[in-house]
Write a structure and sequence with these properties.
Layout: H1 2-18, E1 44-46, H2 57-67, E2 80-89, E3 108-117, E4 132-140, E5 143-150, H3 163-170, H4 186-194, H5 199-205, E6 220-221, E7 226-229, E8 235-244, H6 253-262, H7 266-277, E9 282-291, E10 317-327, H8 331-336, E11 349-350, H9 355-371, E12 440-442, H10 453-461, H11 464-479, H12 484-494, H13 499-509, E13 541-546, H14 552-564, E14 568-573, E15 577-580, E16 586-589, E17 591-592, E18 603-608, H15 614-629, E19 634-636, H16 641-646, E20 655-657, H17 661-673
Parallel strand pairs: 13-14, 13-18, 14-17, 18-19, 19-20
Antiparallel strand pairs: 1-12, 2-3, 2-10, 3-4, 4-5, 6-8, 7-8, 7-11, 8-9, 9-10, 15-16
Helix pairs in contact: 2-9, 3-4, 4-12, 5-10, 11-13, 12-13, 14-17
Enzyme class: oxidoreductase
Binding site for heme: 74, 114, 163, 360, 364, 371
Pfam families: Catalase (PF00199), Catalase-rel (PF06628), Catalase_C (PF18011)
Length: 683
């Protein structure tokens, strides 16, 4: 009887749930209130290039629902790591902006920076192929200013109303919640093929920029056009750039995948260790500035977030330097509770009508309300400004301020109408008075419709190795797509960028190569290629393979020389403890072959010794082959040279083998500074 009741109850429960099971395919698109919508691509604006209007109930419902979809980790940028530092201005920017933190040369401002991946959950790996966040909070005397940047200067979409769509598409597929932290699946590429404004961003995502070697070697871009406004009320359009002093460098894909398994914390560990060692990461802040009168003088719309401002057309002016010099004391209290928002501005910095930026100005505050438990997230220590804040806001979840007095409204006479507003002449913020007119429309300006010219510009700017990596990335990512029709759509789409590119990966994924296509753009921008970046060996990590009986006098001299130029050495051997040289010199072992791997080093230095056995020989050979296949610099002296001869690598590019210790050190440092040796013949 009880079993029958149980089956009946289970059946009833199943039937109750049937009401909530909905298949959206083939249905009309409606709001959550059942209202059919005629448009879902564009937010409501005052004119095609005007600002987004607050009355856009559809946008607000869609973005609000999206912002509240995850509890409690961030919907995007969940996997992050934060550090403290300071920003110093090189020269006064008063000509362009009245922002005080940019007002005088030498002025310093404390900052907090959070680096992150976009797609993966908080427990995902650091080295996945993804866009990286680069968010900076400036604690200025006029309030907090947040520069919420990415390591790529463009984005997938042009309008904030589509942000839920791109994230839903690239996140794990909902029926099985796979794959984690990856775009290599059907829904992402279906979105790309059917939303072709994503073409430029996808080219960056398939490039080496998507797998940075280190947060210390990664650019940051504000993406949007903002405004600088000076004391006279004159405005200029501005874009922001963070440029790492160590240059911009990346992993190779096979290496990135292996690191994800060997050390999923690779990028955050690298950042933490560098700061602990005193190798403080440095980034220069650059700005691109366009006068308002030149807004329409380009072959692209400067408010389109899927476009860059080519540096050949709009040079980058370096105006300051940021130094990251202190790790957090508590990751949750600081890194996880920090709240960024592009709407956190100071006098002298204002917005434009970029429709993606306009959407973000609403979305971020809404997101913090659910993530951080209410409207008082600004009172959490990491978010609290260094200047006082006073207003008539009261109560709410997690209120920390104990407000005195009985007046909490404006206007009032009981408190002499305080807190009082501040005239702009005395530092009060006033929005830039841009003239706006137009019909209320859900539309996009015609000037936003070219989706392929800058994607082609990016392709033209790549070196041959970088182009090869992009082809391989497309072959891997699109090759993971199960639906053959989607694969073909992607091939056909990117034929509009470059016929050679589309043909190459079409053959790899079993799609039909395009018969025609390709953009006619011939322009290139050399600064987009990482081959043209700063090259230095400073702070690079070298794995040194040692065993008992090594030539200790020469090796000690080489160690001292390499350390003097800023390299960090880790000794690898069979066992923990110490290895002893032929003259009795002892060197501490940092890792065994079991506790580390060649992929976590920038270079290998193989010394060996006379205490070798079969296992040592096999493990060293494995390390050597992996480093060689990843185009890394390899050095060998004394007993170590036999591995290079044995594996026919001694004369290969980026391989240094000599017992002349002064010559070795010089050549090895040069090889490490080059980062990778792409012209190496892989055997």
């Amino acid at each position: 009887m009880k079993e029958n009741e149980k089956r009946i109850n289970e059946s009833s429960k199943h039937e109750q749930l049937d009401h909530y099971r909905v298949d959206d395919s083939g249905k009309d698109l409606t709001t959550n209130q059942g209202l059919k919508m005629s448009e879902d691509e564009f937010s409501l604006k005052a004119g095609e290039r005007g600002p987004t209007l607050m009355e856009d109930f559809h946008f607000r419902e869609k973005i609000t629902h999206f912002d509240h979809e995850r509890i409690p980790e961030r919907v995007v940028h969940a996997r992050g790591y934060g550090v403290h530092g300071e920003f110093e201005v090189y020269e006064s920017m008063k000509k362009y902006t009245k922002a005080k933190f940019l007002s005088e040369a030498g002025k310093k401002t404390p900052v907090f920076v959070r680096f992150s991946t976009v797609v993966g959950f908080r427990g995902s790996a650091d080295t996945v192929r993804d866009v990286r966040g680069f968010a900076t909070k400036f604690y200025t005397e006029e309030g907090n200013y947040d520069l919420v940047a990415n390591n790529m200067p463009v984005f997938f979409i042009q309008d904030g109303i589509k942000f839920p769509d791109i994230v839903h598409a690239i996140k794990p597929e909902p029926h099985n919640e796979m794959p984690q932290a990856s775009g290599a699946h059907d829904t992402f590429w279906d979105f790309v093929a059917n939303n072709q404004e994503s073409a430029h961003q996808v080219m960056w995502l398939m490039s080496d920029r998507a797998i940075p070697r280190s947060y210390r070697m990664m650019q940051g871009f504000g993406i949007h056009a903002f405004r600088f406004v000076n004391e006279d009320g004159k405005a200029h359009f501005v874009k922001f750039h963070w440029i790492p002093k160590l240059g911009v460098h990346s992993l190779v894909w096979d290496e990135a995948q292996k690191i994800a398994g060997k050390d999923p914390d690779y990028n955050r560990r690298d950042l933490y260790d560098a700061i602990e060692k005193g190798d403080y990461p440095e980034y220069e802040l650059g700005v691109q500035i366009i006068e308002e009168k030149d807004e329409h003088n380009f072959d692209f719309d400067i408010l389109d977030s899927t476009k860059i401002w080519p540096e050949e057309d709009v040079p980058v002016q370096i105006i300051g330097k940021m130094t990251l010099n202190r790790n957090v004391d508590n990751v949750f209290a600081e890194t996880e509770q920090v709240a960024f928002h592009p709407g956190h501005v100071v006098p002298g910095i204002d917005f434009t009508n970029d429709p993606l930026l306009q959407g973000r100005l609403f979305s971020y505050t809404d997101t913090q309300l659910i993530r951080l438990g209410g409207p008082n997230f600004h009172e959490i220590p990491i978010n609290r400004p260094v200047c006082p804040f006073t207003n008539n806001q009261r109560d709410g979840y997690h209120r920390q301020t104990i407000n005195q007095g009985k007046v909490a409204y404006h206007n009032n006479s009981l408190a002499a109408n305080t807190p009082a507003t501040v005239p702009k002449e005395q530092g009060g913020f006033e929005h830039y008075q841009e003239k706006v007119e137009g019909r209320k429309v859900r539309a996009r300006s015609e000037s936003f419709k070219d989706h392929f010219s800058q994607a082609k510009l990016f392709w033209n700017s790549m070196s041959e190795p970088e182009k090869m990596h992009i082809k391989q990335a497309f072959a891997f990512e699109v090759g993971k797509v199960k639906n053959k029709a989607i694969r073909q759509q992607v091939v056909d789409m990117f034929a509009n960028v470059d016929l050679e590119l589309a043909t190459a990966f079409a053959k790899d994924i079993g799609a039909t190569p395009p018969a025609k296509g390709g953009s006619s753009v011939t322009k290139s921008s050399p600064v987009l290629s990482q081959e043209n970046t700063m090259k230095t060996a400073v702070t690079r990590k070298v794995g040194v393979i040692l065993n008992n009986g090594f030539n200790d006098m020469d090796v000690k001299t080489i160690f001292d020389t390499l350390k003097e130029v800023g390299l960090h050495l880790e000794v690898i051997s069979e066992k923990q403890g110490e290895v002893t040289g032929e003259n009795g010199v002892q060197i501490m072992v940092d890792h065994t072959f079991t506790t580390t791997d060649s992929v976590v080093y920038d270079a290998l230095y193989i010394v060996g010794g006379n205490g070798e056995n079969k296992k040592f020989h096999m493990e060293t050979t494995k390390f050597l082959h992996e480093a060689f296949m990843h185009y890394k610099p390899i050095g060998a002296t004394h007993d170590g040279k036999k591995w290079l001869v044995e594996n026919e690598m001694a004369t290969s590019k980026g391989v240094v083998a000599t017992d002349d210790i002064n010559k070795f050190a010089t050549l090895f440092v040069e090889a490490i500074a080059a980062h990778r040796h792409w012209d190496r013949e892989i055997i």
